[in-house]
Amino acid sequence: MLVENDAPLAPLTTLRLGGPARRLVTAHTDDEVVAAVREADAAGEPLLVIGGGSNLVIGDAGFPGTVLRIATTGFALEGTALELAAGEVWAEAVAATVLEHGLAGIEFLAGVPGSAGATPVQNVGAYGQEVAQSITEVVAYDRRAGEVVTLTNAECGFSYRHSRFKADPERYVVLRVRFALEDADGLSTPVAYAETARHLGVEQGARVDVRAAWKAVLLLRAGKGMVLDAGDHDTWSAGSFFTNPVLTAAQYESFRTRPGAENAPAYPAPEGCTKTSAAWLIDRAGFGKGYGSGPATLSTKHTLALTNRGAATAEDLLALAREIRDGVREAFGVELVNEPVMVGVKL
Ligand SMILES: Cc1cc2nc3c(=O)[nH]c(=O)nc-3n(C[C@H](O)[C@H](O)[C@H](O)COP(=O)(O)OP(=O)(O)OC[C@H]3O[C@@H](n4cnc5c(N)ncnc54)[C@H](O)[C@@H]3O)c2cc1C
């Protein structure tokens, strides 16, 4: 276990923003993770768990407590049952299941940055697939009970970019995630997303070569600056900064009366709700790709990614985020909600 004091956090995040941690602990085994959490809890010390730092906006004042960086390793595949230690790099684990083993189930989540342990936190999803579809169990340290617990998929409370872990961030530290993958003789799960289907030249619902699916997703993502590349400021982001709004029937009705809204993308969501596109709203509210003239701007490849052009502070990024949120509210009456986790700051 490595312990550093007054340690910079910005280099540990993909936005490269934020002040230092009073104390930074790097844990390499589950026992070290549990010991570090217990120690912080016993001392009444604020605790922030980080993996790859790809979904975090840390304030310029930093974190006045212990930051626990999960650096555990472990990739175990038995048949189609996969267990990943929380610190495993997600994109590498996906690549191994697809390229080395030809398995389906997480192939459309290729190239998503960050750690395996964070995937259940916001039910990571992309291109019509989300981890809730393949996670069987999550092994976590329950800070309230003071013990390691195993949660079934149903107990994880998964929904769109949400889970029990996100709802109750002070309670669980994920140690291991178990998945049931699918051996479909080298084929993918059915292609669920229209853009991927178009790119692959098949109908939605078709199965394709799983390696081709993985490759297509990486290509599509790279074109949108959604694959990490240290040399490309368009990827100095936290991915999508806003979730796609899910509107109740009444909200959707009122939204549709706004000029231009009749052409907005609309997808059915649970409980009679309608999901629309945050990227579409941002663009139509006047914030196109590359919007902004300061050190924080929209990505030149995707309106949904707020980026650090190199010298931005967290406040610069938040000022841009607030301008966009307010502009969309004014144009369409829809309140955008941030997807990344805010540490010591608010939108
Ligand atoms: C370029 C880019 C593209 C992206 N594309 C997508 C996408 O397509 N789909 C998508 O869903 N997301 C996407 N993201 C967001 C991000 O990659 C995911 O949310 C990812 O799962 C975050 O993992 P992380 O390890 O970096 O988490 P961190 O940013 O380190 O942490 C995020 C949150 O999870 C908590 N956390 C982390 N590890 C643990 C743990 N072991 N136990 C408990 N809590 C933990 C943290 O406390 C924090 O609250 C993208 C981000 C970037 C930068």
Q: What is the count of DSSP helices, taking H or I runs of 4+ residues?
A: 8
Helicity level: 10-25%
* C-alpha end-to-end distance: 34 Å
Structural class: alpha+beta
Name the assembly state: single chain
What does the average pLDDT come to? 97
Order of helices and strands: EEHEEEEEHEEEEHEHHEHEEHEEHE
Biggest sheet statistics: 5 strands, antiparallel
Low-confidence stretches: none
Strand order of the largest sheet: 6-7-12-10-11
Number of DSSP-assigned strands: 18
Based on Cα principal axes, name the global outline: globular
DSSP strand content: 15-25%
Rg computed from alpha carbons, rounded to a whole number of angstroms: 20 Å
Bound molecules: flavin-adenine dinucleotide
Topology:
Elements: E1 2-8, E2 20-27, H1 30-42, E3 47-50, E4 56-58, E5 63-70, E6 75-78, E7 81-85, H2 90-100, E8 125-126, E9 129-130, E10 135-142, E11 147-152, H3 164-167, E12 172-180, H4 194-200, H5 210-223, E13 246-247, H6 249-256, E14 267-269, E15 273-275, H7 278-284, E16 296-298, E17 306-308, H8 314-332, E18 341-343
Parallel strand pairs: 2-5, 3-5, 4-18
Antiparallel strand pairs: 1-2, 6-7, 7-12, 8-9, 10-11, 10-12, 13-15, 14-15, 16-17
Bound molecules: flavin-adenine dinucleotide.
